[in-house]
User: What shape does this take?
Amino acid sequence: MSEGDQRRAGEQVRTSPAENHGEREIDHVLEALDPDRERPHDVVLSKDLSLSFGDNRILSGVNIEFRRGTITALIGPTGCGKSTFLRTLNRMNDKVSGFRYEGDVTLEGASIWGPDQNLLHLRRRVGMVFQRPNPFPMSIGDNVVAGVKAHQIAKGKQLDVVAEERLRQVGLWDHVKDRLNDSPFRLSGGQQQLLCLARALAVGPEVLLLDEPTSALDPISTELVETLLRKLTPALTLIIVTHNLGQARRTSDNTMFLYGGKLVEHGPTEELFERPRDPSTEHYVTGRMG
Amino acid sequence: MVAVGDAATGGTPPVAARPSVKRDPLLQRIRTGVRANEHHLWGWGGRISAAAPFVALVLTVLVLAFKAWPAVKVNGAHFLVGTDWKPGSTYGAVAYTNGVPHPVGVSYGAWPVIAGTLESSGIALLIALPISVGAAFALTERLPRWIAEILRYAIEILAGVPSVLIGLWGALTLGPLLANDVYPFIASHVPDVPGFSYLKGPVGHGEGLLTSGMVLALMIIPIIASTTRTLFAQVPPLPKEGGEALGMTDWEVGRRITIPWVRSGIIGATVLGLGRAIGETIAVAMVSGSLLATISPNVYGTMGTIAATLVTQLDSAFVDGTGFEVRTLAELAVVLVLVLLIVNILARLIIRRTGNLSAPLGVGL
Assistant: This one.
């Protein structure tokens, strides 16, 4: 039973009180311990979201919710607005000239564009990993804690602890523990991407946005990253843009299919791939389009 | 395309044969005839052009050193550490030291102008580097494009202003203004801490070390700023976006990512500017006071630099019938070349030390 299943069991308890007390006690305990129990299930919520650059409308009327602790894959042909949608969620598009949005995106119930929302703090809560590894021009160790330093989460010796823990989490520690002061540019592409993942995790985000994180990696590194992503739930909510349908199937709980400027279909991954409701979804997932 | 090597070699997979370079008529034509000559012309022309600057430098230094050698034999180590500048009695008796004729009573010590050169260039660098990097950062990252374009042209025009004009402006306008309104304020407001004593004391009349440093800074800002601007423009967007997505402020992205990304290039640009400041002649001659044997006690006092001394003393040097003072100026010129050389070597060492953490050349993410 995965941790995700446990959570779902816990949710059942919340909606219908248990009759069989002995069997359900563990669920009560778990629920009492669950730090997220007071919080809404939908971490990120997109309400009637429409995005455009100048007169060019990219997406219109996107309604979707991202449940806590799940992985959602965003699929669709090139130019369908996957990346634009993803980059809206941490407001990376805000400074692009001509960018306009209608509707709203909420993070735990509060609009990400709300007046009380601090952009820097929002980006600490909503992390991002990019298409290609983008290490900073500083040592491997400094790369991991760059965000931690910027947000003043830890300092001094604590930084070393954070760096080690995050590097262990992404499985890079044994490779780099003897060269934390070396340049990250001598690592392989896959290792660089893991380093960027460790860097994003180091600030303790709640949501992690991944923009085709493995498109520049070889199959073995890709598998490493995918395995790692599975391990990050349910502590994190992941939203992953991918061109690789196999990856979407392997890693995600839910899938959303964007096409023609609209959210055509979304649902549990298995269902969307096996029994797509929309013909264009079927065309895409069966390889006849895209 | 012909498949070869299947049956004959016993089971090796068929390999598509590449068209042979030797047999391809088009490639043959490139390797023969007119085009081959053209090729050689480019090759030799390129080699000669590439060697020319190096040959010119070596020849210049050799001629200077040859001219200076007798003066080295007479002046000795005193030339580098001494603080006096006595041309001797020009119309008096001629003496011989180590077989070199020179006027009686000469004593040349160039330490004050060597120190003056390092001090004024150092001050120029302290002022120019932050301003240049800041300006370059604002031009590439902050300002609207049309304002940035206008300012970019302004910087390029400033780089082309003849130094004599800047020197004249420094002597007539900037110097008096600073001496009347700025220096007294600084001198009376610096804290009484030992390190700051150079900022206290008499402020002079506007000719001197700090004014020279500021005039030099004005001259090297365009050099460093325009090079750094080009460097910043080449930093790929992905690492910068990575910083933003991590919740860094624009300032942090600049300080931790953009500037380090091109750190070795900025050091190179700085050395270019520093070289200009060390070698700058006429503007410094106009605003420094052009003294020969005085090390200024504070940053306001009059002083001299190697380059300025060369131009201000050359006329009177020709009066020396033995030619010794001209030889001494040649020796001073050799010292100037050595100072530039040392600065360049130091810069290379710094780049090597810091370079291994910045991005490898040609990394375009």
User: Anything to note?
Assistant: Confidence is low (pLDDT under 50) at residues 1-11, 361-365 of chain B.
